[in-house]
Structure formats: C-alpha cells, structure tokens
Amino acid sequence: MKVKKLLAAALTxxxxxxxxxxxxxxxxxxxxxxxxxxNGKNVGISMPTKSLERWNRDGSYLQKQFKDKGYGxxxxxxxxxxxxxxxxIEGLIADKVDLLVVAAIDGESLSQVLADAKDANIPVISYDxxxxxxxxxxxxxxxxxxxxxxxxxEFIKDKLxxxxxxxxxxxxxxAGDPADNNAKFFFNGAMxxxxxxxxxxxxxxxSGQTEFDQVATAQWDTSKAMSRFQNILGSYYSDGKQLxxxxxxxxxxxxxxxxxxxxxxxxxxxxxxTGQDGDEANLKNIVDGKQTxxxxxxxxxxxxxxxxxxxxxxxxxxxxxxxxxxxxxSFDCSYDTKSxxxxxxxxxxxxxxxxxxxxxxxQKELVDTKYYTMDDKGYPHPAN
Length: 384
Ligand code: BGC
Description:
Elements: H1 2-22, E1 42-47, H2 53-68, E2 72-77, H3 82-94, E3 99-102, H4 111-119, E4 124-127, E5 137-143, H5 145-159, E6 169-174, H6 181-200, E7 203-204, H7 212-215, H8 222-236, E8 245-248, H9 251-264, E9 272-273, H10 280-287, E10 293-296, H11 299-314, H12 322-327, E11 333-336, E12 349-352, E13 355-358, H13 362-367, E14 372-374, E15 380-382
Helix pairs in contact: 1-3, 2-11, 3-4, 5-6, 8-9
C-alpha cells in the first residue's frame, strides 16, 4: 500500500514536473520550455490567465522585450487557477530560470513557492499585482493603481457636474477580485473622490452596496459581474428608478454590467459606465456609446520598464530612482518607496501613469500612439 502510494506520488510528481517544465499549464496556452538565450540567460514569466484580455498583451510584450535582448523566455498562463500557478512557477524554478516575472492570480498564495525561488537565488519582479507576504520579491512594476480609481471617480464627478448640478443622481459600484491587491486600490481611489457626494446626498446608491466586499467580483469575471448587476437592477430599479452612473473598476466587469443593463434595465437614459484596460470589446462599446470611458494602461511600456529593471537585477545591481533617468524612457514613471507594503515590508515600486480614454480621444491616445489600429468601421484593435 505504502509502496503504491509512493509510486503514485512519484508518478504524479513526474507528470506535474514534465507538464510544468514544458510550460503547458492547464491553460494550455503556454510556450514550450526554452533553454538559455543567446546571452546565456533565461527568464520565466508567469501570467494569470488568457481569459482576461490584457494578460495576453502583457505576455506577448514581455516575451518580445526579453527575446529581443537575447534572453530565453518561458511564458506560462495558469488559467486563473491558484494551484496551477504554483506548479507553473515550480516548473520555472526547476528549469533554472535566471529571473522570474510574476503577475499573481492570488497575491496571498505564492509565499512558499517564492521562498523556493529565493533559496535558488532567483530574483522576482512582482508584475502589475503586488505579491503579498513574501520577502522574496525584489521590486514591483505596475501603474499607479490608486490613480486609476481617482481618474474613474473624477470622470463621474465632472460628467455629472457634482459640484453644481442639483441632483441627486443614482450610482452603483462594481469592483474587482478580492484576491488581487490592486482591486482595493482602484475601488478606494474612486470612492475617495465620490464619497463626499454620497455623504451629502448628491449621489445615492439605491442598492446600499458601498463597501468593497459587497461590490467585489471574484476573478474579475464578466458573467459574475453581470449576474450581480441584474440582481441589483431587478431589486432596486424595476420601479422605473433611473440609474445615472455605474463605476466599474475594469473592462471585464464593465462588460458584464453593460450586458446586464442591455438585458434588464427599463430606462432609456444613457448611463455613465467606467472601465479600465482598453479591451477590444469595451473599446467597441465606447465607440458605440454603450460604455463611457476606460482607463488605459500602456502595458507595452510596463514591459519595457520590466525589461530594463530585469537587466539591472541580472547584472547584480540594486536599481533605485536612477533607473528611470538612466533608461531614458519615453513614458512617465515614478519610483515609490512608500505605498506598497506587502506585509513583509515596503516593496520598491516603479509606477507608470494611466490615461483616460473616451470616444473623443481614442484616435489620439490609442491609434496615433500606435498601440491600436482602427478598422474601416472605426473600431480599434490592438496593434501587435
Ligand atoms: C489589473 C487590471 C485588470 C485586472 C483584471 C488587475 O490586476 O491591474 O488592469 O483589469 O487585473 O485582469
């Protein structure tokens, strides 16, 4: 019995290892195991999922940046499954990558596997999402997440002219995944702008759902956001009450909310709907007037910052603010040593700057900058 169990465990272990080593996680979309690049080094990139659009762009931009500099690259996607991501990272460590770039599915679940990376002397960059409770990560590269939320809040404040209009206006909130450290930053950023108007009664939240835990969306899932919003519309708006604004932390949730409004909202007014990322379907909705704005984050630049930071780390340096000037980036970035405490200490962070995109400035912000191309119907598509 004991022998059988051991054999089974060894077999499973071998299977897991070979799966992870090939990078073919259950997401099934990961690249094959790569050997060292022409410069003798290999970078392991662990992305959460292909099902949320932006990570496809991040993965391919990061892969290209590092490959162009002669690094071998192993890129894994973990199908939004926490255990899978742990296995994928174990595989990358077993592959002896020289650097790990990780966008966590659940910020709290990687402490053990990253302790293994630390033991193997592999530097880790926490990419976009802060990884919590570990001293194994050296740096954090992201956008100013709180600012993303304040841009959404300010947008609503300006469009409803909250300081002058009589109101009151009805508003609802949809936030992101509680397992993603970013989600609260986005929500708090928007709430901090809008809370005074809720307090004064200029904004009313008919559902009463104003706390993060009440409005969060597990895994940033579109259909979960849709069902929750259908319930809200059914419970609080079926008497003909007008909804004026829906603050959604990102585009995958905004898509669900927009679908719920299309199917379950009786009113005919146009509703202000925020988002984040510039996903294709959402940009189409913005052009068609079904979503009002998105906060765009140029992930191509996030990949450039990650590359330049990674190169320094691999040459044994301890970069600081000077990296920004030395690299001569064409985009703005700040070095922050205060905002991101992961429970084991403050993680030095390079934070890029997000931009508001609306129907009016899509051409200027997304197409003229060459991040997207415009098709002949006037809809933008990612350029790469
Ligand atoms: C990212 C957002 C994204 C969300 C869902 C967050 O961590 O910062 O850009 O919309 O995850 O993928």
